[in-house]
Amino acid sequence: MLALSVLAGTATVYVGLSPAPRALLYQAFAAVCHQIPERSPRITGVLLPVCHRCYGVYVGLFAAPWVALLWRGLRVMIGRHPRPALLLSLVPIGLDWLLGLLQVWENTAGTRTGTGVFFGLIAGHIAVVMLAWPNIEQLPLRTTMAYLSGCFRQSD
After folding, report:
1. Is the CB of residue 21 less than 8 Å from the CB of residue 52?
2. Which of 70, 75, 83, 130 is the most buried (most CB within 10 A)?
3. What's the whole-model pTM score?
4. What CA–CA distance (Å, rounded) separates 129 from 68?
5. CB 40, CB 51: distance < 8 Å
6. What DSSP designation does 128 have?
7. How far apart are CA 39 and CA 113, in angstroms?
8. CA-CA distance, 115 to 98, in Å (whole number)?
9. What is the pLDDT of residues 41-70, one digit of tens each?
10. Is the pLDDT of residue 108 over 90?
11. Backbone angles phi, psi at 36, to 5 degrees
12. Are 11 and 43 in contact (CB under 8 A)?
């Protein structure tokens, strides 16, 4: 939920920008996203600079550190098998695309966003576990929870 609210806030800020900065961001994301208007989210009629799937990937990447802290079983499995985990996270995206192409089913904004979130969570999880916090298993849960609760305290 935190990831969704932060990204929704970011998207809202994007919508509030004047057209020139929005055009620059749109152009910057063109390097990594097809930006097909029919497949891109809109907020109050303003087209976001990424498609539904890319938006889902960004949500997943943002949420991955929190999931890595709180979900030990996933952390252990991915830590032991990062390559297969990454390849398996691409299966839903591939199936969504292939079944749509074969007209077995029509992929929707929901399926594209959902498969993007799944891939982003796994890819971000791998980055967190392998790169950012290689000794995360040494952190006791009490310390982790204390750290997280401190992140949300408001300063006076």
Report:
1. no
2. 75
3. 0.73
4. 7
5. yes
6. I
7. 10
8. 13
9. 887 788 888 999 999 999 999 888 888 777
10. yes
11. -65, 120
12. yes
123-155 pLDDT per residue, tens: 988 888 777 665 655 555 555 545 555 554 555
How far apart (Å, rounded) are the C-alpha atoms in residues 54 and 62?
12
46 residue type, one letter? V
Do residues 41 and 15 touch, judged by C-beta distance below 8 A? no
The amino acid sitting at 7 is L
The span from the CA of 93 to the CA of 60, in Å, is: 14
User: Which position has the token pair 């790169």?
Assistant: 131
List the end-to-end C-alpha distance of the chain, in Å, as a whole number: 25
124 token code pair: 């971000």
58, 54, 45: which is closest to 3 by C-alpha? 58
| Cα 115 to Cα 51: distance, rounded to the nearest angstrom | 12
Counting every residue written for the chain, the total comes to: 156
79 vs 83: CA distance, rounded Å: 10
59, 1 in Cβ contact below 8 A? no
Q: Give the relative orientation of helices 72-80 and 52-70 as an angle to the nearest 10 degrees.
A: 110
pLDDT of residue 29: 85
